[in-house]
Write a structure and sequence with these properties.
The complex is a heterodimer of chains A (231) and B (200). With 231 residues, chain A is mostly helical. Chain A has nine helices and no strands. The longest helix of chain A is centred in the middle third of the chain and has 30 residues. Chain B is elongated. Classes of the chains: A mainly alpha (231), B mainly alpha (200). At the A-B interface, α1, α4, α6 and α8 of A face α2, α4, α5, α8 and α9 of B. Chain A: It is found in: Membrane.
Chain lengths: 231, 200
């Protein structure tokens, strides 16, 4: 059975990852919390993404621990190690974000946002954004196919040779289509009663389970331990 | 707050969502484009994004002609930056710039080309959020180096040009690129959408 976490617990984890970055917790605490977040990928049946991110994070951690102390005085090497350390410090946030993004459905997100009493004027655009991302990719492929058919910007790197033209030829059909999709979505959503006043119900039932409290609490421990030792 | 939002209807909100998604995709494209330039790339990210997404912004502004749309766009952008693992600060930067940009555009009743351009420039500064941690992390990295016994004067010479110079360059680049991108967007809007009668 795969483990499903409540979107609200995921939001808390994101906040936690951001706080760790803001307060510069030590490398040990950061690694411990990140390992816990990486474990979530494996628990949710996203083992491949989990392996990839783990290799990246622990690879950079190894660079920081074993290579950076030996870089010496070379400016170039110092710059490179700055980049590697910088990327590593950003990774906990990105890992938690990737987890939240890849495991939350539109229904869950809407239900969670409603439970958090956000106004509908924010929930609706959020749901549309999530729903619309795949459409953009699909449209892009159609546009490129149509361009190739007419022999415009065919081949690798051709887009970069006429950047302004590429921008116009790709973006304008995208915008045109988005405009139409916005109208279609509105019609569909209004038919389903999204504009009605009062409380809306959700297909997805969200319940905070014990795990939704335990796991984030576990992830908080490294940060907490750091704060305690500082005091 | 709610009073202003109430004027936006559900189709308006859906349009905001659709165009925010497009805008977010363009910012992501800009991120990847910038990642190709090692090191300095990230600093120019908001500028590149501002350069390419002018038409999205202009179309949204022309379509809605109401207060609140741009604000919500900034808010939702901030939310998605946060969820996709960017810094909490990007959330704040997007909201503040979103509201400010909305006010500027509203001053011209969403018709004045100049004020719309200005409002796009303001909105583009909201994108500095994702790169702000660069400056935060630099101090952490320096602390790291100092703790390992590197000479403080040496560290200063290493980072002096990256610090103040890059910040000014980044801010100026956003201004110029947002002006160019916004102007390009307005031109495109006129060429493709006004003639077709999609927006007035």
């Amino acid at each position: 059975m795969t483990f499903r976490m409540d979107p609200r617990a995921k939001l808390y984890l994101l906040l936690l990852a951001n706080l760790m970055l803001l307060f510069h917790v030590g490398t040990g605490a950061e690694a411990a919390a990140t390992a816990l977040c990486l474990l979530l990928f494996f628990l949710s049946g996203k083992a491949r993404a989990g392996v990839r991110l783990s290799v990246l994070y622990f690879g950079l951690l190894a660079v920081d621990l074993f290579v950076v102390p030996r870089v010496g005085e070379s400016v170039l090497l110092n710059l490179l190690s700055l980049v590697s350390v910088g990327v590593r410090m950003m990774l906990p946030c990105i890992i938690t974000g990737a987890y939240a993004f890849s495991t939350t459905t539109v229904g869950e997100l809407t239900a969670a946002l409603r439970r958090m009493h956000l106004p509908e004027s924010i929930i609706i655009p959020c749901a549309v954004v999530v729903r619309f991302f795949p459409t953009v990719g699909e449209d892009y492929r159609h546009i490129r196919a149509a361009m190739a058919l007419r022999g415009i910007a065919a081949g690798r790197g051709a887009l970069l040779r006429h950047p302004v033209q590429s921008l116009e030829y790709i973006l304008m059909p995208l915008l045109m289509n988005s405009n139409n999709v916005a109208q279609d979505l509105s019609a569909a959503a209004l038919t389903k009663g999204i504009g009605l006043p009062g409380r809306h119900t959700c297909m997805t039932e969200l319940r905070l389970t014990a795990w939704d409290f335990l796991y984030p609490a576990l992830c908080t421990l490294p940060l907490l331990w750091k704060v305690v030792t500082l005091l | 707050m709610n009073q202003k939002f109430n004027k936006l209807t559900v189709p308006d909100l859906i349009s905001v969502g659709v165009f925010t998604a497009l805008y977010f995709v363009l910012v992501t494209v800009a991120t990847f484009a910038c990642a190709l330039l090692p090191g300095v790339g990230n600093i120019l990210l908001p500028a590149v994004a501002a350069l390419i997404s002018g038409s999205v912004y202009m179309l949204l502004a022309a379509k809605l002609q109401k207060f609140g749309g741009i604000t919500i766009m900034g808010l939702v952008m901030g939310l998605f930056f946060f969820v996709s693992g960017h810094f909490v600060l990007s959330f704040a930067a997007n909201i503040i710039c979103g509201v400010a940009a909305d006010l500027v555009a509203a001053a011209g009743k969403y018709r004045s080309k100049k004020l719309l351009l200005a409002s796009y420039v303001v909105f583009s500064y909201g994108l500095t959020g994702p790169i702000l941690p660069l400056w935060f992390m630099k101090s952490a990295y320096i602390a790291n180096l100092t703790a390992r016994g590197k000479d403080a004067a040496y560290i200063d010479t290493l980072f002096a040009p990256i610090n103040s110079g890059s910040f000014v360059v980044s801010i100026l680049a956003i201004l110029i690129c947002a002006l160019v991108g916004g102007f390009f967007g307005q031109k495109m809007l006129k060429k493709h959408f006004e003639k077709a009668g999609i927006v007035a």
